[in-house]
Structure formats: structure tokens, C-alpha cells
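retry 2 of 3: previous attempt timed out while embedding heme C. Reduced batch size to 1 and resubmitted. Inputs unchanged:
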Amino acid sequence: MKSLNFLKSSFIIRFTLCVGLLYAGQLAAQDGDAANGETLFKNNCASCHNPGDQVVVGPGLKGIQQRRDLAWLVKWVKNPNGVIASGDQYAVDLYNKYGKAQMTAFPSYGEKEVKDILAYVEKYNTAPAVVAVPGGGAAQPAGTTSGPSDLFTYLLVALLIVMLLVLGVLMTIVSVLSKAVTGTEGTQATGETFMERLRGGLTTFAQNKAVRTASVWFFILMATKATLDGMYGIGIQQGYAPKQPISFSHKLHAGQYKIDCNYCHTGVNRGKSAHIPSANICMNCHGVIKKESPEIQKIYAAVEANKPVEWVRVHNLPDLAYFNHAQHVNVGGVQCVQCHGEIEKMEVVQQRSSLTMGWCIDCHRKTEVNTKGNDYYTKLVSLHKTTTKESLKVADIGGLECSKCHY
Ligand code: HEC
Ligand code: HEC
Ligand code: HEC
Ligand code: HEC
Ligand code: HEC
Ligand code: HEC
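retry 2 succeeded.
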């Protein structure tokens, strides 16, 4: 009864919390569209602002509606320099406080965009647990484990345990039997030490046919597994996480400060390579932030010497394979996390997926093509529907053709 009551009350608490959160979201959304605001914010403001109260390049935007009124905010976002130049005391003080860093102007923004962003900031601060999940609900790291080989390991371990148990049972039987023998034929056994009996028992045990067959099979299996693993493992670098010349942390930049991946990896939407940012991109912020840190000094040294920072490459396909980021990220709508794991939680980048051909193919077989709003696919989809009820998968548009991935 007591536990039932507890269940009931915990249910009620959760229910109330959910309704409360929904309501809070609703309240914030009344004025502006928080979802749209989130997109706008993440794409345009997150590189310099945190929606909470942390300082990135500019101030955290928490409580901004209490600090400034809407008219001022619209004016500011449209043209920050104009507001500063107009002699607005608040703006001038702010500008000086943040080391005279220039905020980007968004001349195309109006009341609607600013309201949406404010709604998002409000929502972020009222229900952080709900909105603070980076990448939305799509965080489904695919192919981060190598299923079959794990299964094989489990099977082998299980087999090993069973064999040890059998061994134990057999040993007991042998010892019981040998005791029985010594009991009935006492004369013969007198003087036989424990060690001699044990040796005798073990010999009988080792001569047992079933035991011998089992052991032979066991060793064959182990050897096969080791060989297979070795062969499959050639060239696979899953888990590779080299030390980098500057201790750059994604957990800090992409996780804590929510800097968009795109801000640094400018190629992901446009081309084959994602690009590693040049030191100049770092300098956008580190021209003013943490100048004194020895790690940041390394960036300065690279810029002064006009030499690129020598980052160690983590992901690397062999030359025979062709992979294109824009195709996956921009056209296909695949999230970084699906292939790279949760980079925003990594202090040091680690290769989470195997990057094997099987991994690519596996995803192409399972993943539906993102055809929404893409006229290119309209005809293909209707054609596909006439032949099968299955949804259009990457495999159906040629994702399994050798020549698509091999030069
Ligand atoms: C390149 C960096 C950068 C970007 C991008 C940026 N800001 Fe700013 N923002 C700043 C800086 C720096 C300040 C502090 C004032 C200054 O130095 O000009 C600031 C100040 C503000 C303020 C005033 C904060 C306060 O506490 O009074 C608001 C509001 C603001 N920004 C909104 C936005 C919005 C909305 C966006 C996106 C549409 C955005 N900013 C994009 C750098 C940026
Ligand atoms: C402030 C700039 C910055 C941001 C933001 C950033 N990265 Fe990076 N990223 C780097 C730098 C610099 C490296 C090279 C050093 C390293 O490996 O840590 C790198 C390396 C990587 C690598 C490994 C590249 C290789 O060598 O194979 C991946 C994958 C990656 N980033 C993904 C992401 C994802 C996903 C995000 C967003 C969640 C992101 N990055 C955000 C700067 C950034
Ligand atoms: C959009 C702004 C921004 C960009 C771009 C950026 N950083 Fe940072 N970085 C920060 C902030 C904010 C901190 C935290 C500073 C603090 O702890 O006070 C930081 C901290 C660091 C630190 C830790 C410093 C220390 O000693 O604590 C390192 C190292 C670093 N960044 C390297 C880089 C590198 C390398 C790049 C370019 C690939 C880069 N950052 C680009 C904003 C940025
Ligand atoms: C469909 C899987 C997939 C997705 C999605 C994906 N990547 Fe990659 N990424 C790869 C592969 C495979 C490589 C290795 C490419 C090579 O060696 O040619 C790679 C390499 C990289 C590199 C190293 C530089 C380069 O281009 O070779 C960076 C940085 C990177 N990815 C960042 C990102 C970011 C940021 C996102 C999300 C916007 C992302 N990736 C989305 C599979 C993916
Ligand atoms: C997480 C799932 C996923 C993984 C892993 C993945 N892909 Fe893809 N791939 C897609 C999707 C989705 C598309 C469809 C994009 C579109 O709409 O054109 C695609 C399309 C492609 C295409 C174009 C196919 C065509 O007919 O237009 C090529 C080439 C390709 N991928 C290569 C690779 C290679 C090489 C790898 C492994 C290194 C890989 N992919 C890994 C999801 C994935
Ligand atoms: C979706 C992309 C994709 C498709 C389709 C694809 N491959 Fe691959 N293939 C790869 C990648 C990535 C590698 C490199 C990783 C590895 O060795 O597993 C690879 C490796 C290989 C290798 C091994 C080369 C070596 O040195 O180990 C051979 C052989 C190969 N592919 C042949 C084929 C043939 C034949 C087809 C058509 C039936 C095909 N591939 C279709 C992506 C693909």
C-alpha cells in the first residue's frame, strides 16, 4: 500500500512537472516562436553569446528582457555600431566592458526575429533540461559499436565459463571416484599420498575423450577469433584519440560555449572536406580572450610565424574511398553525432565509428533518404512508390554502387 501511494505521488509530481514545463514553454512562446528563435540563435548568435549567463565573446543573454526593452534590442541587433555611435550610454559602457569587441550587425532582422530569439532565451532559462540537449532529439549515435564481434566475444566468454564449470564438476567426480576406489581397495591405496592421487585423477581426466575434444575445439575457436580480429582490425582506427599540439577542447568550445560546429568546420555544408579551422578563426575570439594562457600563446606563435598549427589528423579514410560531407550533412540531413559521436562532450577528439566499408553500407541500407522539400527527389519517390511499399532508402538511390564511393 505504502509503495503504491509512493508510486502515485511520484507520478503526480512528475505529471505536474511536465505540465509545468510545457506551460512555461508555452508562456515563453506566446510572444515569439522559440523553435525558430533557437535556430536563429544557434546559427547566428551562439558563436559569441550563451543563452544562459555565461560570457562567451559578448554577455550571456539571460535576463536581457529585464535589462533592455524590445525597441532598444531591435535597434541594437540591426545595427550595434549605430547605437554605440549615437552615444547611448548603456551601449557605450557595454562596448568598453567587452574589450571593444564588435558585435556583428543583422540589418535584415526585425521585431519578429528578435522576439523569437528572446522567446528561445526565455525558454532556455526556464526549462534548461529540456532545451539544453545539443542536436535536438536526433542524438542517435549509429554504428558506434561493432555488434557482431562483440557478440562473438560474449559467446566465447560464456563458453569459457561453461568449460571451467564442467572442469570443476569433472574434478569433483574424479576425486569422489578415486576416494571410493581407495576406500574399497584399501590395501592398494595405503601409502598413496594426496599428490599421487591428484596426479592419478588428473591423468584420468586428461584421458577423458570428451574433455580432450572440448579443449581442442576451445583452442581452435580462440585462435580463429584472434586471426579474424587481426584481419578485420587492419587499418581500423576506432577509438584513436591522439594528443594534439594545442590542448583544444571541444567539450569547452562546442559543449559549454555552444559554438556551432559550422563556425570552425566551415566546409561541412559546402564540400567534401569539413576543414580544420585556421589559427585566424581562433583569433576572432582569442585576440581578446585568455591571451595570457600558454596554450593560447601557441596560437599567437603560429600566427606570428605564419605557420599553420600542426593538428594530428584523427579520421582518415584510405585514398581509394570517396566521402563527401556536404552530401551527408547538407543534402542528407545526417547529424555530426551519428558518425562522430558526441564530440561536444570530448576533451580530446576520438574516432568513435569504425569508418569501414561495412559501416557506410550498413547505414545506407537502413537510412531513409531525406526527400522533404527537395524537388530533385519528387519524381523518384513517386516512381519508387509504384514498385514497393518500403520507404526510399539511400541504398535505393545508388548508395551501394561501388563507383559512388570508389574512385
Ligand atoms: C561576433 C560576435 C557576436 C555575434 C555574432 C553576436 N553578438 Fe551580440 N554582442 C557581442 C558583443 C561583443 C556584445 C557586447 C557589446 C559590444 O562589445 O559591442 C554584444 C551584446 C549584445 C546584446 C546586449 C547584451 C546586454 O547584456 O545588454 C544583445 C541583446 C545581443 N548582443 C544580441 C545578439 C543577438 C540576438 C545576436 C544574434 C542574432 C548576436 N548578439 C550576435 C558580440 C556578438
Ligand atoms: C572553435 C572551433 C571548433 C568548433 C566550434 C568545433 N571544432 Fe571540431 N575541431 C576544431 C579543431 C581546431 C580541430 C583539430 C584538433 C582536434 O582534433 O581537436 C577539430 C577537430 C574535429 C574533428 C576531428 C578531425 C580529424 O582530424 O579527424 C571532428 C570530427 C570535429 N572536430 C567535429 C566537430 C563537431 C561535430 C563540432 C560541433 C559539435 C565541432 N567539431 C566544433 C575546432 C572546432
Ligand atoms: C567564438 C569564440 C572562440 C573561438 C572561435 C575559439 N575559442 Fe578557444 N576559448 C573560448 C572561450 C570563451 C574560452 C574559455 C576561456 C576561459 O576559460 O575564460 C576558450 C578557451 C580556450 C582554451 C583554454 C585556455 C586555457 O588556458 O584555459 C584553449 C586552449 C583554446 N580556447 C583554444 C582555441 C583554439 C585552438 C581555437 C581555434 C581552433 C579556439 N580556441 C577558438 C572561445 C573561443
Ligand atoms: C555520414 C557520416 C558523417 C557525418 C554525418 C559527418 N562526418 Fe565528419 N567525417 C566522416 C568521415 C568518414 C570522415 C573522414 C573523411 C576522410 O578521411 O576523407 C570525416 C572527417 C571529418 C573531419 C576531419 C576533416 C575532414 O573533412 O576530413 C572533421 C573536422 C569532421 N569530419 C567534422 C564533421 C562535422 C562538424 C560534422 C557535422 C556538421 C560531420 N563531420 C558530419 C563522416 C561523417
Ligand atoms: C549515418 C548514416 C550514413 C553513414 C554512416 C554513411 N552515409 Fe553515405 N549517405 C547517407 C545518406 C542519408 C545519404 C543520402 C544523401 C542524399 O539525400 O543524397 C548518403 C549518400 C551517400 C552518397 C551518395 C549516394 C548517391 O547515390 O547519391 C555517397 C557516395 C555516400 N553516401 C558515401 C558514403 C561513404 C563513403 C560512407 C562511409 C565512409 C558513408 N557514406 C557513410 C547516410 C550515411
Ligand atoms: C557506401 C560507400 C561504399 C560502397 C557503395 C562500396 N564501398 Fe568499398 N569501401 C568503402 C570504404 C569507405 C572503404 C575503406 C574502408 C575499409 O577498408 O573498410 C572501402 C574498401 C573497399 C575495399 C578494400 C580495399 C582495401 O584496401 O582494404 C574493396 C576491395 C572495396 N571497397 C570494393 C568495393 C566493391 C567491389 C564495391 C561494390 C560492390 C564497393 N566497394 C562498394 C566504401 C564503399
